[in-house]
Amino acid sequence: MKKRSGLYPRLAVDGSGRKVVSGAGGVLLTRTARAVGLDAALSVALARWRRPFARHDPGKVVLDLAISLAMGGDCLADIAQLRAHPQVFGPVASDPTVSRCLDALAADAPVALTAIAAARAAARATAWATAGEHAPDHHVDASAPLVIDVDATLVTAHSEKEGAAPTFKRGFGFHPLWAFVDHGAAGTGEPLAVLLRAGNAGSNTVVDHKQVITAALAQLPGGHARGKKVLIRIDGAGGTHQLLAWLTRRRLSYSVGFTLPGNLASIQKTLAAIPATAWELAYDADGQIRPGAWVAELTGMFDLSGWPPGMRLIVRKERPHPGAQLRITDLDGMRITAFVTNTRRGQLADLELRHRRRARAEDRIRCAKDTGLANLPLHDFAQNQIWCAIVALAADLLAWMQTLALTAHPARRWEPKRLRLRLLSIAGRLAVTGRRRLLHLAATAPFTDLALDALHRLDALAAPG
Asked: Any long-range contacts for 238-245 (C-beta under 8 Å, 24+ apart)?
């Protein structure tokens, strides 16, 4: 009988490999940055922070950090993975230089954040124009608006960092507020704005929502700052008089979670008085009729006199999932939820399904936490503000790469973890022939052909400048 030697081959391992690049698939991100002009835009925007005779461009330092996060890093030191391969990623600053650059930007954080946002907006305009029919703003109008989701999340701090505070979930850390543009069912999404806040910041703070929405609108290419072709979608944290009035004055479409007005007795009495004929069948996530769920418009049944004109109140009732706890405002064993919108056209079931798709923002936040947001690694609040801007840059790069290079493929919807495992982690080998430098991606990697096709698509795009 043959003796087994184990489940895996026994290899003699050494560290003498030369011209081998781990994470060679990261070239997809560098090509994307060049294709949309992000490298040049950051270099110009952050030029004021470059010291005389300095070797490293602050714009490239920030972009290198974003690429590092996109490839799975979660702290400044992880930029070493790029520094090890200058033939692919160019000269990468040392750890002390990176720290000094972040300190310099944090010392003038409002100006630095404005500069980074301007570079992102310029690159986004190029990316969406280049994407054509695959861009999220392609053929948007009042009936099919561009959707901006606003949502907050909790980020735990494991040390006494500046601005960290107890959270409403009895944790300790930060409570950043994000705005994402939704790419719809065919894609993922990309961040537009982020506001880092202390952990005890309120969920429904109107000033913070206004600031984030204003910053998000400024990120959109020209022509989308106003009008019903932009829909602001928020959960119940946005259901305040001031915010809805502000959205109305800005002439923006909205779909916002809402708490039914009045006391418990009046709410239950009104809900019980709804005629059976007012309820329509609701849809599931695929747009198909969902048994056990109904929607109805109750605009005229509640006192909405203090709310903005044109606001419609739509209510959903459904049988709760097994194990779900009913709330005190629920009626007859049915879960009751409500939202308001100023959209005048469309079936109730379609409008309600559109609102429930706000849950995609939670997917975007989860992806951001996989791309550096889960760990705010710096001590000063201003430093972590810059870090959040870099997290947004990393998420932008991934989204633009998918939009431009992975169209008509399921990879267009892959989340960061899957992109890293299947594409960005592909290994390569450097070679020089004549005056050409070549990067040979691993022929045995399952998704090398997809990576090469994506690179060909990016190379076919005219680089700005």
From this structure: 238/150, 238/204, 238/209, 239/204, 239/340, 240/204, 240/206, 241/306, 241/307, 242/206, 243/206, 243/209, 243/210, 244/307, 244/308, 244/311, 244/340, 245/308
Q: What is the pLDDT of residues 378-426, one digit of tens each?
A: 999 999 999 999 999 999 999 999 999 999 899 999 999 999 999 999 9
Which of 280, 284, 264, 283 minimizes the C-alpha distance to 272? 264
- For residue 458, the Cα-to-chain-centroid distance in whole angstroms is 22
pTM above 0.90, yes or no: yes
Nearest residue to 126 via CA among 221, 200, 204: 221
What is the C-alpha to C-alpha distance for residues 2 and 15, in angstroms, rounded to an integer? 32
For residue 64, pLDDT over 90 is answered with yes
Separation between Cα atoms, residue 340 and residue 248, nearest integer Å: 12
CA distance 365 to 175: 12
- Strand (E) positions, 319-435? 335-341, 428-433
